[in-house]
Amino acid sequence: APRPLSSAVPRVPDRGEALYEQHMLDGVPCPLCGFGRLEHRESELCCSSCIEMRVPLMDRLLTMDDIFETLGFAECAHRQAGCHSRPVFCIREEGMGLGSRLFLCCEDCGWSECTI
Fold first, then answer.
1. pLDDT of residue 94
2. How large is the average pLDDT for residues 5-13?
3. How far, in Å, CA of 110 to CA of 5, rounded?
4. In this predicted model, what pLDDT tens digit does every residue of 77-103 receive, in sequence order?
5. What are residue 44's DSSP bridge partners?
6. How far is it, in rounded angstroms, from Cα 103 to Cα 116?
7. Has residue 28 got a pLDDT over 80?
8. Contact between residue 61 and residue 71 where contact means Cβ atoms under 8 Å apart
9. Which of 3, 69, 81, 106 is most open to solvent, judged by the fewest CB atoms within 10 Å of its CB?
10. Mean pLDDT of all residues in the chain?
């Protein structure tokens, strides 16, 4: 006799389902890992999932909507510059006591822009 579904091996969601579930979450997706959500922690912008995303916020009045727009504008500026490759966000250490900053970089065209 067939076993009821409840006793079957749990089903692992495929990549499409996992992406859909991430899309349905509130907040701004982490530009580094893509899974966590960005959040304000004291004077830093951090990811709820990865430890790499930790950037000091110079303007504490920035809202998550402002941050989302800033990241989107950076990607649009890269595209408008004529490069059709997909850039990536990365963390770089800045000199003069500025700490870590979030950059949008493209290996194909050499684009490097500080976003936050």
1. 75
2. 53
3. 53
4. 999 999 999 999 999 987 666 689 999
5. 41, 56
6. 7
7. yes
8. no
9. 3
10. 83
Q: Which residue has the higher pLDDT, 18 or 40?
A: 40
3-class secondary structure per residue, 8-30: CCCCCCCHHHHHHHHHHCCCCEC
Q: What is the pLDDT of residue 72?
A: 94
For residue 104, the one-letter residue type is L
Output 68-77 pairs: Cβ under 8 A, ≥24 positions apart.
Answer: 68/28, 70/115, 70/116, 71/28, 71/31, 71/104, 71/115, 71/116, 74/104, 74/113, 74/115, 75/104, 77/113
Residue type for 85, please?
S
Smallest CA-to-CA distance from 78 within 88, 69, 68 is with 88
